[in-house]
Design goal:
The protein is an alpha/beta fold and about 200 residues long. The protein has a domain of about 140 residues: Nucleotidyltransferase, domain 5 (2-Layer Sandwich), CATH 3.30.420.10. About 35% of the residues lie in helices and about 15% in strands. The chain has 6 helices and 5 strands. Helix 1 crosses helix 4 and helix 2 crosses helix 3. The longest helix is centred in the C-terminal third of the chain and has 24 residues. The radius of gyration is 17 Å and the shape is globular. The termini are far apart.
């Protein structure tokens, strides 16, 4: 069955490839999270795509399917305090490296969503702009990272109910900014970001 999404199963025919993506760069609160996913070479899926194009129900269904199909996967997380110290771009690279550190299988090629990456352990890498809409492994990483981070922010929302994190997961929505205006910031806000 041909995939509706037309994503590619792999970049090379012979190398062990890992797809890497991060989520939460534009948020005002919470960590930046990255995932790394190694899928079988012939992996195909009719629904899997960039996590931003999927609804919540689809993402959580896909998460289970990715976990059961993946040869290996891992998640890395860098806190808001570290983001404030080293900036969001470096924190994104750090989260990606953390995810790669946690893999049991050593990849031979890293496929990175976006146009920049910090080299990792002399493993060749390929930056692919909008890669989460082009390769299944990067799309899978975007889904796992998004589900992991959304769960985390929804749990934090129970503790800090004034910012609508259960819906906006830390992104700069009007309700989030109004919460900051009225109740101040939490220990999870990124102080180096423009919060108001």
């Amino acid at each position: 069955m041909k995939s509706k999404t037309d994503l590619a199963s792999s970049f090379t025919t012979n190398l062990i490839e890992v797809g890497v993506d991060e989520v939460g760069r534009g948020c005002l609160a919470g960590p930046v999270v990255a995932a790394a996913v190694i899928l079988p070479k012939n992996f195909k899926h009719t629904l899997l795509n960039d996590s931003k194009l999927l609804n919540q129900k689809e993402r959580y269904l896909l998460k289970e399917e990715i976990i059961s199909a993946a040869l290996d996967f891992a998640v890395g997380e860098v806190s808001n305090e570290i983001i404030d110290q080293i900036n969001i771009l470096n924190a994104s690279f750090m989260a990606m490296h953390e995810a790669l550190d946690s893999l049991k299988i050593k990849p031979e090629l890293i496929l990175v969503d976006g146009n920049r990456f910090k080299p990792y352990e002399f493993i060749p890498y390929q930056c692919i702009i909008k890669g989460d809409g082009k390769f299944f492994s990067i799309a899978a990483a975007s889904v796992l990272a998004k589900c992991y981070r959304d769960d985390l922010m929804q749990n934090l929302a129970k503790e800090f109910p004034y910012y609508n994190w259960e819906k906006n997961v830390g992104y700069p929505t009007l309700k989030h900014r109004l919460g900051i205006e009225k109740f101040g910031i939490t220990p999870f806000h990124r102080k180096s970001f423009k919060l108001l």
